[in-house]
From TrEMBL:
<protein>
    <submittedName>
        <fullName>Cyclase</fullName>
    </submittedName>
</protein>
<dbReference type="InterPro" id="IPR019587">
    <property type="entry name" value="Polyketide_cyclase/dehydratase"/>
</dbReference>
<dbReference type="InterPro" id="IPR023393">
    <property type="entry name" value="START-like_dom_sf"/>
</dbReference>
<dbReference type="Pfam" id="PF10604">
    <property type="entry name" value="Polyketide_cyc2"/>
</dbReference>
Length: 322
């Protein structure tokens, strides 16, 4: 068992990419949900839009830790000249009482390589030894995952750009924006409302964070099960999500539902950002399949489901359901 008080950890990884490339990945926090498995959503509350400018930024971060969803606010000091980023949680999520640390990027032993170090310093609420062990386990697991992801991203940066793509669909609604948002938020009712959803297991824990296991049936009759975490923002009529278990063709899938007032009605939009699982393409689509053909298949399937959901949300709102 860990001793109580402040605890410190250090993690390293060597990367076959330049220090500048590695620093750029660490600095670009809004991209973390598509890059790092534990990160669900990031919002920049203040600071420079361009990370290379350096300075102070404040971030609101949602992430998984030991199978739970946590949210906190962090302040980061970006120092591109020294390739260092210091961070400190301003508002932590129990059982964390305090958390700070630093990313350090240094030139590696060989030209064109880098060593990335991640430092953490943390304490538990009420100095509880069991909670300290929980934090240590979560920090170790997430740090190892993040460093491995950064290594993979930095060493395959050119290829990663080819694998990522994004798209959106939207529809005008002659109805109450709140009714549209309610339809999208009430996912537990989707098996009764959406033809392509055959099953849904949903729990909301904590409030406004939904854990979903959804069964869908494609137009060709094939069945898929996905697991997602959704973060709901009722005041903004916005829902962001990340799939924890994706279909074979996708390595990562994040998205958002947004409803905004538009004249006397509303405009509802579904946005997706996807990273292809390149290794699965020939197995799923055949030996001659290309990255573009995989993107086309996903665009048709995912976009088709989103369009169907938006159409039924539109009908729900325009029917003035209570």
């Amino acid at each position: 068992m860990l001793r109580t008080g402040t605890h410190r950890t250090t993690h390293h990884i060597d990367i076959d990419a330049s220090a500048a490339a590695v620093y750029g990945i660490v600095a670009d926090a809004p991209a973390w949900p598509v890059q790092f498995a534990p990160t669900l959503h990031v919002e920049r509350l203040a600071g420079p839009e361009e990370p290379s400018a350096g300075g102070t930024e404040r971030l609101r971060i949602w992430a998984t830790a030991n199978g739970e969803a946590k949210v906190w606010t962090s302040r980061r000091e970006l120092d591109p000249a020294q390739s260092r980023i210091r961070f400190r949680q301003e508002v932590s999520s129990p059982p964390v009482a305090a958390m700070s640390g630093e990313w350090i990027v240094e030139a590696g032993a060989a030209p064109g390589t880098a060593r990335l170090t991640l430092l953490h310093e943390f304490a538990a609420v009420d100095d509880d030894p069991g909670d300290l062990a929980w934090i240590d386990r979560a920090t170790d697991e997430n740090s190892r995952a993040e460093l491995a992801n950064i290594k993979q991203l930095a060493e395959g940066a050119a290829r990663s750009a080819d694998l990522d793509f994004a798209f959106e669909d939207s529809t005008a609604v002659d109805g109450d924006p709140e009714a549209v948002y309610r339809f999208l938020r009430e996912a537990a009712a989707w098996p009764d409302r959406l033809p392509h959803v055959s099953g849904m297991r949903l729990r909301e824990e904590p409030e406004n964070i939904q854990w979903m296991v959804m069964d869908t049936v494609a137009k060709d009759g094939s069945a898929h099960t996905t697991e997602s975490v959704r973060v709901c923002f009722p005041a903004r009529r916005r829902i962001v999500y990340k799939q924890l278990v994706t279909p074979p063709l996708m390595a990562t899938h994040i998205g958002a539902w947004t409803v905004v007032p538009d004249g006397q009605g509303a405009r509802a939009t579904s946005w997706h950002r996807i990273r292809l699982n390149e290794e699965a393409i020939p197995r799923v689509l055949g030996a001659g399949a290309t990255l573009q053909s995989a993107k086309d298949v996903i665009r048709a399937a995912v976009g088709g489901n989103s369009a169907a959901t938006l159409a039924l949300a539109k009908r729900f709102a325009e029917g003035r359901h209570e």
